[in-house]
Design brief:
DUF5067 domain-containing protein; DUF5067; globular; signal; 3 helices; alpha+beta; disordered N terminus; Immunoprotect_excell_Ig-like; 29% strand
């Protein structure tokens, strides 16, 4: 039951954060067209919204990857899974007055792909939380300028193909960058 409540809360939060991110992108586009210095505005917007391989910064949130680790089936952090997982520890910082939690921040910014299918994009499924110390904090509302540590795991399909994290400006937003993580 607790899992269902978390899932519903996570989905609702995702739509809220995605809508905010997309509105911000539209506002930036409108401002760029309205000014004679379109190139300068675009350059400034790119500096404010980015992914540098470790930190993804959007208008409302910044997510910093702290550690990645492959956890085999049965090991601590993947005791109940039936596939090895890529575990990622990260910090989520709320840069706004909006209600943002660590899970929503991560899911709104990142997706994980393991490119081992010649015919389709293989987006990885989220697994069980790998760090039990984050059970209570994963859905906590982060205060403005506050930072909360969290973790997430993705179920791996093999242990040879690297995982590519794709950072976007909110769900369905423009791609900000990619980070390849080796799993072998």
């Amino acid at each position: 039951m607790k899992k269902v409540i978390y899932s519903v809360a996570l989905i609702a939060s995702l739509f809220t954060l995605a809508a905010c991110s997309n509105d911000d992108a539209k506002e930036a586009d409108t401002e760029a067209v309205a000014t004679d210095k379109k190139d300068e505005t675009s350059s400034a917007a790119k500096k404010d919204v980015y992914f540098d391989g470790e930190t993804a910064k959007l208008k409302d949130v910044a997510v910093t990857i702290k550690e990645t680790k492959v956890i085999p089936v049965g090991e601590p952090g993947n005791e109940y899974g039936d596939k090895p997982v890529l575990a990622i520890w990260y910090d989520a910082k709320n840069l706004s007055d909006k209600d943002i939690d660590p899970n929503t921040a991560w899911i709104a910014v990142f997706s994980a792909v393991q490119d081992n299918d010649p015919n389709a994009v293989n987006t990885l499924n989220v697994g069980m939380i790998p760090d039990q110390s984050h059970l209570d904090s994963q859905l906590q509302t982060i205060k403005k300028d506050g930072t909360v540590e969290n973790s997430i795991a993705y179920e791996l399909d093999d242990l040879t193909t690297p995982v590519t994290l794709i950072a976007t400006q909110g769900l369905g937003g423009d791609e900000l960058g990619r980070k390849e993580i080796k799993v072998d």
